Amino acid sequence: MTANILVDQVSVKYKKFHALDQVSLKLDGEKIYGLIGRNGAGKTTLLSLLASFAEPDEGTIKVNGQPLFENAELMQQVTFVYEKDFKEESEKVKTYLKAAGEYKPDFDTEYAMELVEIFNLPLNKPVHKLSKGMQSVLNAVIGLASRSPITIFDEAYSGMDAPTREIFYQQLLEDHARHPRTMILSTHLVSEMDYLFEEAIILHKGKVLLHEPVDVVLEKGASVTGAADLVDDFVEGMNQIHTQKLGGTKSVMVIDPLTEEQLARASQKELEIGPVSLQDLFIHLTKEDVQHGTK
Ligand SMILES: Nc1ncnc2c1ncn2[C@@H]1O[C@H](COP(=O)(O)OP(=O)(O)OP(=O)(O)O)[C@@H](O)[C@H]1O
C-alpha cells in the first residue's frame, strides 16, 4: 500500500501553549523523510498524531483520503518506533519479537531473524536485562521487520553506539530499496543522517519552517573553500552562517545561492564551491534572531 498522508492545519494545545500550530504537510510517496527540530519543537507531538496515539485539537490528518484517528484498518499500516521503557518487560527477546510480529500484518519473521544475527541480539535474554543500546536495537528490528507502509522512528537510535547506528542506517536504506514505503525519521543527529533523507521537514516552535527535497535544500547556499584572504574577499557582504579555518585555508558557509558570475569568479580564484550542509542550514534557520523564510 502506498500511503499518502495529508496533515491539514493541525494544532495541538496544552492550555494556551501551542505544541503544534496550524501544521500542514503533504507526504506523498514511498520516501524517507527527515523530521528535524530543536528540543521542544513539536516532533514527538506530530509523530504521535501520525501514529494515532492522540487526536489533534484542530485540523485533520488523512491517509489515502480517510481520517486516520481510531481508524483500525489504517492504524495497522503504521509502526511507531520510539524510546520505550523496558524495565517491566521480563519475557525473552524471542518471545517479545514473536508477539510484536503478531500485531503487524506485513511483519517478516525471516528478516527479523536476519537482523537479530546482524546486530547480535541475544534471543534468550529477558528484554529488561538487555543494555540500553540493545533495547534500542530490538526496537529498531521490530520497526524494520514490520515493513509497515508508514514506519516512524522517533529518535529511536539514541541508545545505539556509532557502529550500530551505521549498521541500522545501512539496513534501513537496503530494506527501503527492496520494499519502498513511507519512513519518517526524527533526529538530532542531522549531519550523520542527512544522506538517508529524500525530503527534509524542519519544525520550529510548532510550525513547519521548511519542507523540501534535500537536494533543493542544499542549493539554498554554498560552502566556499580556499586561501583565507581570497575566501574573505569573495564572501564579503554575503550572508555567512559558519566559518572554519585550518592554517591558511578557510571554509565559509553562505546562505545565498551563487550567481553564474560568482561561480565563474570563484573558479578563476581557485576557490572550491560545495553545497551547504543540512545541519548548518538547520542551525541557522532555527537561531532565535533569524527572520524566517529561506527563499
Ligand atoms: N503532556 C504535555 N503537557 C504539556 N506540554 C507538553 C506535553 N507534551 C509535550 N508538551 C510540550 O510540547 C512541546 C513539544 O514537545 P515535543 O515532545 O513534541 O517536542 P520534540 O520536538 O519532540 O522535542 P525533543 O527533541 O526535545 O524530544 C514542548 O514544549 C513540550 O514541553
Automatic annotation (TrEMBL):
<dbReference type="InterPro" id="IPR003593">
    <property type="entry name" value="AAA+_ATPase"/>
</dbReference>
<keyword id="KW-0547">Nucleotide-binding</keyword>
<keyword id="KW-0067">ATP-binding</keyword>
<protein>
    <submittedName>
        <fullName>ABC transporter ATP-binding protein</fullName>
    </submittedName>
</protein>
<dbReference type="InterPro" id="IPR003439">
    <property type="entry name" value="ABC_transporter-like_ATP-bd"/>
</dbReference>
<dbReference type="InterPro" id="IPR027417">
    <property type="entry name" value="P-loop_NTPase"/>
</dbReference>
<dbReference type="GO" id="GO:0005524">
    <property type="term" value="F:ATP binding"/>
</dbReference>
<feature type="domain" description="ABC transporter">
    <location>
        <begin position="5"/>
        <end position="230"/>
    </location>
</feature>
<dbReference type="Pfam" id="PF00005">
    <property type="entry name" value="ABC_tran"/>
</dbReference>
